[in-house]
Amino acid sequence: MTASPQDVSARAPALKKRACDSCYRRKIHCDGANPHCNWCSHHGIACTYARPLKLRKPRASNRKRSSRNQSAHGGSFAGSTSSHIDPPSSSASSPDPSAAASFGKLHFAGYQLGDINSFQGIPLFSSDGRRWIQERTGSKPAFPSLVAPLWQNEQHIANQVAIAPISGLALPARKVVDAYFQLFKSTTLNLVFPVVHIASFQETIDLAYSQPQPTESIEVLDAQACVFSFISVIHFFEGSIEDAPVDPELCVAKAQQLLPRILLQSTVTSLQVALMLGIYQMLSGHTQLASIHISCACRLVYMLGAHVLRPIRTDGRGRDNYRAQNHLRRLFWLCYTFDKDISLRTGQPPCLEDDYCDISLPDNYDDIITARWDADPMSIDDSEISALFVPGNLKLSLIKAKAGKLLYSARSLQKSDAELLRDVRELDDELENWRISVNKDWRPSLIQSGGATTTPSDMTQSKTMDAILSHFEYYYLMATIHRATSRCKAWADVEGGDMDGVGSSLELTVQASRSTLFYLRAAVHSLLGQSFWMVLFYPMTAILTIFCNILLKPRDPQAQDDLDLLKTAPELIKKMRTRRLTLKEFIHMKLVEDFIMELIRLGDCAIQKAR
Question: What stretches pass through the bilayer (predicted)?
């Protein structure tokens, strides 16, 4: 039975009026009102006085008093008897490591609820996060069955690699490799995914087939791993070629088996292998493996000097050298793009640190990235290809890097509310400058309505996908930048008058999440099947943000509309799956759909409970 403040006073009349458990942990004033203090009443939580009474010793030493203060500030959530989720500690100099800021953590309106995303797109709520959900909904969340299988996709690939002996690494038929290489050269894929150097890859193929297998030559193994990786990536994008059957997953397993041996030398070929393996795993939804391979590729970028390379165009004998340097620089930008994207999705620090890299872009960059979609890959000379012909938008990648450093690094935990809000405004301005630089025909709009169109109908499929992904990245970056204000200490003092800034940021976070789902509804029929695992990340994080907002403000008139929007998500995600899923992917997608349905049920419970 929970004691009231009056009961406590009756039992211990010599003590000053006690703060409730929630106010005590936050070190904020508690008015002791019955049955709920002002803080607990405002947040709709139980106002408890369940912590044990402690009598102050008459002559406590300064050291003991300091020790008690440290214990009060550093107490973990797990040791609390209250079921309320604590906002971040009010101490800026001693943040709680368990609530470390990162893209991989969910902070929402002062609450740290767990991991905002997993490697497979399903959020992982902490035990305190589940307790908060139960308090707000009156219903126990049914999430446990959705957590265990998260790593299965990574595991089945790892098992494949472990059982592939070197003696069994037979190359595909030469005509198969030649067919895929010809396909690569004839499409815009080689302009935006320059995973191999067209001018020299034929030599790599010749070297791979130059010696009977097995071989101990590192150079030959390097070339063979490059062929395996190349086949898997091109097959992923373009599918099977008639009369050229190939098993892409087996090719990946063979390349991964060779990787430790070829890394004995730092070559452009080994960089291409690590990068292609990372791209394949990323597009397949195996972000953990992708992170490992991209990290390896980034170290090779440093070793080869590509992070500071500035190709200088020359004629005559120097032209071949320029081509090689230009290709190496394009590999750097590919690594940079995927490195920042993985950091954004997992909360892990990036491998390519901006302070150590030349990341300057030319003034005509916007013209360059537009030209890549209009170029004829068969007629263009690769010496004329810009080193910036890579997928996505490098300006967005630079903003991702800056957002991670300013808002979600360990150092950012030391910032005051004013410093954090200043950085949020600065990044918001940069994101807006990027937005208005985009062609007005496919420029993102923060307020996305349900009936909006995606892109002009005369755009090519590749250009359409680029525009769609830019929209999703814009909405996610908007939400990510403004969600950082959920760590502000103002959330622990809602009467302090500092809520305007953090409150408006929260609204922008939620609005960007709504726009993500509205845009998905408009763009779902234009999505390519190969992009499924890359795109799934965006609606999943948006769904979670909207769900948390429903629980935070169940009486808001918008809450029911938001719940109705969530109810459209399962069908939208089904429509995203335009390619045939493997059995393991199908099982995982069933878990994702069940998870969303549970969020919808809990959101409805929260609204009903608040009425």
Answer: 532-552
